[in-house]
Amino acid sequence: MSGTSLDGLDIALCRIKGSGISTDVEVCEFISIAYQAKMKKRIQRVFAQRRVDMMELTILNEEIGALHGKLVAEQLAEWGIQPSEVDCIASHGQTVFHAPRSFHQQMHRPNATFQIGDGDHVAKACGITTLSDFRQRHIAAGGEGAPLAMYGDYLLYASQECKRCLVNIGGIANLTYIPEGANFEDVVCSDLGPGNTLLDAYVRKYFTPLSYDKNAELATKGEPIPALLEALLAHPFFELSMPKTTGPELFSLQYLEDLMASIPVVIETTDCKAKTPNGLAKTAKVYQHVDVLTSLSILTAKSIAKGIKACIKTANKMEQSAVTKVEIYMSGGGVHNPLIMNNIRDLLPRYKVQTTETLGLDPDAKEAVLFALLANECLAGSNAMESHISQNTHDKPVVSMGKICFPD
Questions:
Q1: Is the residue at 3 inside a domain?
Q2: Distance in angstroms (rounded) separating the CA atoms of residues 72 and 128
Q3: Does residue 138 contact residue 399 with C-beta atoms inside 8 Å?
């Protein structure tokens, strides 16, 4: 798995038994391997860009597939596992563009998404049958290609006793809400807004050579910028009903800087006067770059809390209850950001916000594990899950996902 954070490749070695709602998974090993700086820069040049060098994009598709296969082969050797012991690889690839209709606004045209890292090259490089390109089948069946977390979340964490809300904070934050005793069509799964993507992009530009704000060490030094936070939260995406999807294509650094210029927000620099917009009062407050990071951290927390509250509010109406009991579990890189996590807890004071570690799953490994489950369903699935589904809705079609690539 390599997500929108572009930090590297997550490799989870999983032992899976059964399929459908009888699935049992054990994570035997997990590691995250950082991309080398040169490769990361090459991916960034084609990532979430409307105009790219098509030859570079085409070559990268092959190179990343081979690189991912090589990293898997090397890591298996490090773990003392022979390729012949592994039934298959589930390879998500590297997302470079995600364009649902809500983003491209051409309603007569399809939802679309694009991941590079060709599965045949993965399979050839490590000698293991590989399933890849999962999101295309979801789109072909009427979905948006994301988020796909709901399938694995439902298989692993549906409960007869309690409601569960599982939130992953990667580049984009997404939520899966599972009522107790739920059938699959009762599950709500949706992107919520930017997780780490705006934070990381801002750090890369203004705090070089850092690539992200480790432990929120920068953001905790700042203060929120009220006008910026208000403008960010006013984005139309946050008013769309769930389910919905988004990506760094929408919540980009260019969007953020355009918004800051329109408010305007003045950031202290070595040439502050040159950066001050024309007509701005000399008494206007001047902010620091760390204040922008603080505001973006609060944006992430508020958009996540808003999504959770919306699910709880709906449950309250259905049950005519004042407070619905719900278990909240977090995963993804964002769980290591104490400012985001503390803000979420402050915004949800009635609920215990935990990580998936409580459920026995490393929060960093969760996304990779979920794609392993999709591969298992494609290869070994039966009608066990389908027996729990009364209708196949467009936003969450029940389909096998993944193209099968053989090593020879």
A1: no
A2: 10
A3: yes
Domain assignment present for residue 185? The answer is: yes
Candidates 191, 103, 93; CA nearest to 149 is 191
Distance (Å, rounded) from C-alpha 313 to C-alpha 300? 20
pLDDT of residue 10: 96
- Residue 105, domain CATH: 3.30.420.40
Q: What is the pLDDT of residue 321?
A: 63
pLDDT surpasses 50 at 384: no
pLDDT of 392 reads 52
Q: Interior CA angle at 146 toward 243 and 86, to 5°? A: 140
Full residue range of the structural domain in which residue 378 is found: 8-405
Alpha-carbon distance of 399 to 374, in angstroms, equals 10
As a whole number of angstroms, the distance between CA 232 and CA 168 comes to: 21
328 in any annotated domain: yes
Is 382 within a domain? yes
Q: Angle 214-216-217 (CA atoms, 0-180°, nearest 5)?
A: 80
**Two structure tokens written together for 296:** 């973006």
Cross-strand pairs, 113: 98
Percent of the chain scoring above 90 in pLDDT:
82
pLDDT digits (tens, 9 = 90+) for 13-35: 999 999 988 999 999 999 999 99
Q: What is the pLDDT of residues 284-297, one digit of tens each?
A: 689 999 999 999 99
